[in-house]
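By convention, each integer encodes one residue's backbone shape. The lines below illustrate.
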Amino acid sequence: MRFFDSHCHIEDERAFGKDRDDMLRRARESGVLCMMIAGISLERSRAAVALSEANPGLFASVGIHPHDSESCNGSIISVLASLARNPKVRAWGECGLDFNRMHAPMDVQERWLEAQIDAALALKLPIIFHERDSRGKLLSMLRHMAPSGLSGVVHCFSGNLEEMKGYLDLGLHIGITGILTHKQRGEELRSMVRMLPDDGILIETDAPYLTPSPERNRHKRNEPAFVPTVLKTLAAIRRTSEEELAETVFQNTCELFRVKPDEIPDLKE
């Protein structure tokens, strides 16, 4: 089986600076051939692009996380837009709304989310959305700003069934993380993933966060090598073949991020 970690932060020097090469080797050995490194700031977006340029099968996105909205401005959006023209950049984000921790006021988050959506649409890039406890606000904004032609993924989906259906209706994918494997926290998500259409699913680690079970019993840090555990759990819940689901999700991710067959490392390498 081959896997595409559709969302990770392996450019994080604090988490991966000491053993990045070994981490990438473990991922390849686990069948994880491709990874999307999600930018969360100008500095981290630059690091994501540089890392993707140096490694086959790695791709990058650029964006400003909602936690950092107060530090955003028009100049940063312009620089990110220029950076996004790098051929290894295949998406915009991680951007969105987070009304849980409230690192930035709601109106500030909404203002810079709108600016990033406009930039992504102008560049014809899919968008990686972060959403937490926005109480339907993100879905409402997307319906207003991009009622048609929107592509992207709601990463680490944590909403309700109505929101999930709304995002799918807009043409977005749903990103599933290791939360699916967590006994209590993943209970509601496990009930919803049965209803996801095959072509609407992506899987991800969000590494170094959200380590799946049982790996989190032994490892505090998540890494791309663990994404097959998410797939295995998803296949069991949906009562489908792991091999067939893995290939479907891999193709979903390649299609969304416009990854061509000759950009995918050989499974035997």
About this structure: The chain has ten helices and eight strands.
